[in-house]
Design brief:
Helices cover 40% and strands 18% of the residues. It has 845 residues and is of the alpha/beta class.
Length: 845
């Protein structure tokens, strides 16, 4: 017989049963009173469980549980927290739309809590905060991802400072996840084709407040040995493993939602990893509604949302045609597409047989709603992917931006939250979309906010010392070296932190560009500085590992050994201590390669001040009142020159502004000007960079219109899908013959403000009806090179015909002086199109 298995669960006293429910809902991750309940039962068990409430309940002795069940004080605290939890789940929320039309959010990783290690960095942190805020706002949103047996690697350094990786196994039966089961009690599973084979995946549920995250797992006995590792590790394995993971996430994710009975009508792809979901949605519509490929395309395009996260080419997944054929040859036939046409869906130039298949391109083609994650990144993304829309001007490439944010109560330390709750009032908790509440920060006294921040710096230093002791003990150092770790850092010294992925473009070593100058800053007796570094390099990123090694070697210099530390195995726990206890948050990427970044937002909401290159979110947030900018937004072709210039600028800021401002104290010992900036930073970043603001933007601009489109396309047996597909086919058949043949204006060439220019255009519609083509004026001021700057669009009205020609007319009101110009162009026009900017369908006169 094979192995027989059984489950053992903690024997929780009846009076403590709410703890079981709380432990399995990550609502506790942003409610410190709930965490305190678990710490109060048994602090040692809490720490031994690595702050995992489910595991912790299994570690606590039965005697401790029985004692807690008989403790009136503990039970009173439990009742208060549980009542708050129940109110949270039943209270009316910001979202007022139909609850039966849900949004499905797909991401490769989720940074929800240290107890659920299925994340690596910023993408996961954003995904986790997205889910938390969707719960706060009452959005009917579900998350979809993968359950990694090993998660992301754990980092440790060898004696020379070179990064090593370990991959501990996750014990899902002692983590805040539950296996989904069918009516018979059997594990719920889905089947996904992997080339000529099929992989089965179980579905696990994570409760995140009011909402759920579903994670797929192939590590089950029903799968052959070579398919079980598909969900072994995040971003691990070879190209074959990567495509298998992305097939499972996209195609398997759609099937999992159906198996769960969830009728999601809007799909949000967080990065291109899940882009294959669009093909699966089309395939299902073709099978179930008897639609053609072009007919099924329409409702999928109108209800897909895609967020691109990186301008770094390596971050945009590409696969060789041979690998695509192995896994998608049969699906192309099922979709009724020739192989070249299928590959063209993932190519910037569908005619280029040498181009690989790119998931970002596929997601952009399959989505009506596309966005970057900051204003600057939106601009960079439009330039990066403009070849998909070659006839459009750069500003009109249909990729907008919604700037990232963070979930405030997950990242603002509980000490600071308690302070803000007292001064902001209950609306700070109950109405998270009210950003104006942050204007009340000036009610908080300088003394209180500074003392709170000082307590956080003290706790950060204590945490760092504890981590250093663990690191040093693991390396087997001498007792004298261990004592150095115990005395590292000072709770009273200006502390700069750099904590993020150690990708080379993030330049973690920029501050080390002039070691002598840095040592003088660190060792100044009157105004000392100390540095904390943390972060992981990708296992295959040797250059990133060398940067870590460089920092370790610098930190080993006896002159600065206690003032520069590197904390190994950067995770959410380390992040929370650093963003809440640091004085200055350092960010030095090569512009414009930082799409957004969110760690600086977390630090700012805790009172830290940002010092950053004008890249990502800081490019739009920065003002002289809330932090400092390294440079003025320059972009360099010579990287060595850039490093030299910006390294010197960073030192100058530290020496001339930052350090003097921090150490300039009044008679009461308070750095009043520094505190003034702290408050301004908390106010402006709190108001503008929360995920509540971000989610409200996604809802109003993307989700609500997509859900409305889903309803329209699904009505009357999908008639609208057939109608729009027929329209597109007609466009494709006639577009090459369509011409703007004559443009006339009776107006003078020199006019005054308030005058009007009348313009008429004769258009050969090539068999199209006048209302099937949108003709518009594209006009504005001219540059010295004759290009239209800051263009404006003005629809032209159909005003008659001239023989076989349709005539369109418009009047431009002269409201700007200087040299002006205009052009005329034709675009598709149909009421069901989300926007008219379809690839290849723009005709200029």
């Amino acid at each position: 017989m094979g192995l027989l298995t059984f489950m053992i669960k903690p024997n929780i006293p009846i009076r403590l049963q709410p703890l079981e429910e709380l432990a399995h809902n990550l609502w506790i991750s942003w409610n410190y009173e709930a965490i305190m309940l678990f710490m109060r039962i048994d602090y040692d068990a809490w720490m031994a469980s690595r702050m995992n409430p489910v595991r912790m309940l299994g570690l606590v002795s039965q005697a401790r549980l029985e004692a807690a069940a008989a403790d009136d004080s503990f039970l009173a605290a439990l009742d208060v927290v549980y009542a708050k939890f129940l109110r949270y789940n039943t209270a009316e929320r910001w979202y007022k739309g139909p609850a039966d039309r849900s949004i499905a959010y797909f991401s490769m990783e989720y940074g929800l809590d240290v107890a659920l290690p299925v994340y690596s960095g910023g993408l996961g942190m954003l995904s986790g905060d997205h889910l938390k805020s969707s719960s706060d706002l009452g959005l009917p949103l579900v998350g979809v991802g993968l359950l990694y047996r090993q998660g992301y690697f754990q980092q440790y350094l060898n004696p020379d400072g070179f990064q090593q990786e370990s991959y501990p196994e996750n014990d899902w039966y002692n983590m805040p996840v539950n296996l989904c089961r069918d009516a018979k009690g059997e594990p719920l599973s889905v089947s996904v084709e992997m080339g000529q084979e099929k992989a089965l995946a179980w579905i696990w549920e994570v409760k995140v407040g009011k909402n759920s995250l579903y994670l797929l797992d192939t590590n089950i006995e029903e799968n052959p040995a070579h398919l079980r590792p598909i969900t072994a590790s995040l971003y691990g394995g070879d190209r074959e493993t990567r495509i298998q993971q992305e097939i499972l996430l996209g195609i398997g994710g759609i099937r999992a939602l159906r198996a769960l009975g969830i009728t999601a009508q809007c799909m949000h792809m967080n990065e291109g990893h899940s882009a294959f979901l669009g093909l699966e949605r089309i395939r299902l519509l073709m099978c179930e509604e008897k639609l053609s490929f072009t007919q099924a395309w329409e409702p999928v395009w109108a209800t897909n949302v895609f967020t691109t996260h990186t301008p770094v080419p390596a971050g945009n997944e590409r696969f060789a045609p041979s690998l695509m054929e192995k896994y998608f040859g049969s699906m192309a036939s099922e979709l009724g597409l020739g192989w070249k046409d299928f590959l063209g869906l993932g190519r910037e130039d569908p005619r280029n047989d040498g181009e690989e298949f790119c998931l970002t391109v596929l997601a952009l083609r399959l989505s009506a709603y596309n966005n970057g994650v900051s204003r600057l990144h939106g601009r960079v993304s439009r330039a990066m992917w403009r070849n998909i829309w070659p006839s459009l001007t750069l500003d009109e490439v249909p990729i907008t931006h919604i700037t990232n944010g963070v979930h405030p109560r997950s990242w603002i330390t509980h000490d600071m939250v308690d302070l803000l709750d007292r001064y902001f009032g209950p609306e700070f908790l109950d109405t998270p979309t009210n950003s104006e509440i942050w204007d009340r920060i000036d009610r908080v006294s300088d003394e209180e906010i500074w003392r709170t921040h000082e307590r956080r710096r003290e706790r950060m230093v204590a945490f760092a010392r504890g981590r250093l002791n663990q690191q040093l003990a693991r390396r087997g150092v001498t007792n004298s070296e261990l004592s150095q770790g115990a005395n590292a850092l000072s709770p009273y010294t200006l502390t700069l932190s750099f904590a993020r992925r150690f990708a080379t473009y993030k330049r973690a070593d920029l501050l080390l560009s002039d070691p002598g100058r840095l040592i003088r800053l660190l060792t100044n007796e009157e105004r000392p500085v100390q540095l904390i570094f943390a972060g992981k390099a990708h296992p295959h990123d040797l250059a990133g590992k060398e940067i870590i090694k460089k920092i370790i070697h610098f930190a080993s210099n006896p002159r600065v050994a206690s003032r520069v530390v590197f904390l190994e195995d950067y995770d959410m726990t380390t992040s929370r201590y650093l963003v809440s206890g640091s004085d200055v948050w350092l960010n030095t990427p090569r512009r414009p390669l930082e799409a957004s970044g969110t760690s600086g937002m977390k630090a700012a909401m805790n009172g830290a001040l940002n010092v950053s290159v004008l890249d990502g979110w800081w490019d739009e947030a920065y003002s002289t009142q809330i932090g400092w900018a390294v440079g003025r937004g320059e972009e360099y072709e010579d990287q060595a020159l850039q490093d030299e210039v910006e390294g010197k600028a960073l030192y100058d800021l530290l020496e001339r502004e930052i350090i003097p401002l921090f150490y300039t104290r009044g008679m009461d010992g308070l750095p009043r000007e520094w505190i003034k900036r702290m408050k301004a930073s908390m106010r402006e970043v709190g108001k503008g960079f929360s995920t509540h603001r971000m989610l409200s933007e996604y809802t109003q601009r993307f989700y609500a219109p997509a859900l409305a489109s889903a309803q329209a396309f699904g009505a009357d047996g999908c008639n609208l899908s057939r109608e729009v597909a027929s329209y597109r086919e007609k466009l494709a058949a006639n577009w090459d013959e369509l011409e703007i043949e004559e443009l006339t204006s009776p107006s003078a060439s020199i006019l005054k403000i308030g005058d009007k220019i009348s313009v008429a255009a004769k258009v050969n519609l090539a068999g199209m009806a006048p209302d099937e083509i949108g003709v518009e004026l594209y006009y504005g001021s001219l540059s010295s090179e004759g290009e239209i700057e800051q263009p404006r669009r003005l629809p032209m009205r159909h005003c008659g015909s001239d023989g076989d020609m349709a005539v369109y007319c418009a009047d431009i009101v002269c409201d700007r002086t200087g040299r002006q110009g205009y052009k005329v162009r034709a675009l598709p026009s149909h009421k069901a199109l989300v926007h008219p900017f379809l690839p290849g369908l723009v005709k200029w006169g």
